[in-house]
Amino acid sequence: SPHTCVIYSTPLNSISTTLNPITMLRRKHRVKAKAEAERRTSGKDRSLESALRWFGWAFCFIVVVILMLKALDFFDEKTIVGDGHSINTRALQQRIDHAKAGDTITIQKGKHVTGPITITKSHLTLRIEGTIVGIPDETHYNIKPQFPSYPSGERFQSLITIANCTGVTIEGSGGIVDGNGEYWWKRMERLGTDQPNRPRLFEIKNSTAVTLRKLFLKDSPFWNVHVLYSDNVTVSNLVIHAPDDSPNTDGIVPDSSTNVKIQRNAISVGDDAIAVKAGKDKPGRSFAKPCSNIKVEHNVFLSGHGVSIGSEVSGGISDINFLNNTILGPMKRGIRIKTNSARGGYIKNISFKDTKLSELEKFLEITTSYHAKGAPADTPTVISGITFDGVRRIKEGKADIKEIHPGVVACSESIPCNGLLFKNVNLEPYSGAMKCTHASECL
User: Is 298 among the residues known to form the active site?
Assistant: First the structure.
């Protein structure tokens, strides 16, 4: 035939298997399961890839943060090095900031150079066994606004500040705090100005139950210990020294504070050994925070300007008791009370009892015209209740004591001195008579 027919034959068993419904369902299920497995594997791969990518970014971010924090000394516990030239400001401040209530931080023996440090934690003890030395470089000292009870201006940060604390003790065991004052005195002389004000050595501000004891304070740029707006502060067993020609190196200055005890200190400086203050002029009167209940007992005062009340008295000064102190000198005057027409405020209930005097040119000076500047206060300073009881001369060493002048009480009609009492006062040997103007009583 012209056409050929080809017949392919398939075994019956193959046809039956191919067309078997159960087999077809199993095959379909296998295909579907394979596809699902492939889909799941693909999804897992994508999830893993995404997780790895986010992990990488997170890791990089954490590394960068750690490096930044390390650069800021967040983690590193810096070592305090007493080699005399390494700067310890960060290490000391970090040690203080990381301390807990009840901790004692010890500055070991050695010479530890530092910029200003601040204690703002309560119930802390700083024990100084070595020497802390202030950096003689003003760039390390922040400039702060003047205190609110004083006229506007600026000041360099104090070397050691205790602020807004309760129960802080700074004590020594052979410890020295050296302010490197000569750098600052020469700076003032070179620039012809004391603005901003030079740093204090210690500033105790807005604090309660603070103790400062058993230290040698040396060459403060400005005042050595400034107790400001504080209560229940004890300053004891200090030796404070600065050259007798060093400017404004007052020893201990309780200022607008209450219940301050100043006991068993030896002070030889270039200005007042003790200066009790209470703000200055209109800002001091507006701030209106008096200085009261101050006890100055069993101290020895050598070179300097003696002990004083004022001249910053605008917030009021009262109930100041000087008991059993020795004023050896040499110095120009032993006791001075000073104010002026711009101050206002009051000075009352001040007693000097059992006071021993040696090498002085003048026993007492009261003046109401001390460095008078600025607009007069509406009400002048009221001076009343000043008692001198048991004041006598003593001989120190082999040399005979020289004659002393009794002093000057120079008040004015607008600022009289009332209630002066001199009892058991023996200034022998002395020459001349006390000069008195507008005073209720004179020696």
Answer: no
